[in-house]
Amino acid sequence: VHAPAQVRGLLGGNVTLQCHLQLLDSSVQVTQVTWMRRQPAGQPSSVAVYHPSRSPWYLDPERVEFVAAMSGGELRNASLVVSQLRVEDEANYTCQFATFPHGSRSASTRLDVIAQPQNTAEAQKVPPGLFTSESVPVARCVSTGGRPRARITWSPDLDGKVNKSEAPGPLPGTFTVTSLLTVAPSSQVDGKSVTCIVEHESLEEPDSLPVNLTVYYPPEVNISGYDGSWYLGQSKASLTCDVRSNPAPTHYHWSTVAGSLSCVSLSIFNSANAVGGDQRPPPTSSDSGMFYMILFLTVVILVLFLLGLLLYCWKFRSAREFLLWNPHLSAMNEHHQRCH
């Protein structure tokens, strides 16, 4: 007896349970064919019976039928059609041939009833007024009415967390699976595209559902333009602020630690939108003030040294010229040195 080990049928559809008897001896006669069903927690029960001298018998004649049954004929193709599949049809089925003179032969088939889910995916928008620093849901994927349960994954997951939940489906024995992708709101997430991937036994290949994300996040401020080499009296020094946020900023404000903007003040930029604000000082060097002070003192000392050197040279030259123009003073000086 030949029968497949496993057969799958769609919920509400039709399925054929194949069963064939192969005989090498033509003298063997088939006296009866019986299909039995055994559920996990129950005794085997007859589903269909065929006898050559009688009409076929069916447990549910409106949904079950032999494929090749002929009144008065021998049945070696005992394949059985089950229509309008229900969840309770899922069970182990045994096809049994009663033959003369060799006795009974049988084979078993597992029938799995599956249901193809309906899959949807959409972006989730958290209103700006409800913004928090915690992770927020950005995308939801729902697989409705699947049997067995669908498997849902996200690509990429944006280093977020996935929350899954499950509920009964619209038909008995089916399941609805929901997957919620949550991430920390930032410019790195807003505008990105993710894909919900649904895998199920009823699908030849996974169902891929793209989702474009819209994430509200507070301003991210960056100030550039300061290169660490500004000096006192420099002209045309400027700072540039770049702001990224969703929604767009509602106002901008520049301030300084001194309370007013000047070329030597430390500027602080503040920006805000509907979900919050951010302020950012320009990039500074902690040693730049000390560096300029040391440089200034060095220049002053060097200038004073040069002035002193020039003064000394001038006095020395003036003294020599005086002696040259007064020879008797020079002679007296030499005589005085010899006496000593």
Automatic annotation (TrEMBL):
One of its GO terms (molecular function) is cell adhesion molecule binding. It comes from the Eukaryota. Residues 1-112, 117-212 form the Ig-like domain. Pfam families: C2-set_2, V-set. It is a single-pass type I membrane protein. InterPro entries: CD80_C2-set (IPR013162), Ig-like_dom (IPR007110), Ig-like_dom_sf (IPR036179), Ig-like_fold (IPR013783), Ig_sub (IPR003599), Ig_V-set (IPR013106), Nectin/PVR (IPR052659). Keywords: Disulfide bond, Membrane, Transmembrane, Transmembrane helix. It is found in: Membrane. The keyword Transmembrane applies. The keyword Cytoplasm does not apply. The chain crosses the membrane at residues 290-314. One of its GO terms (biological process) is homophilic cell adhesion via plasma membrane adhesion molecules. GO terms for cellular component: apical junction complex; focal adhesion; plasma membrane. This is Ig-like domain-containing protein.
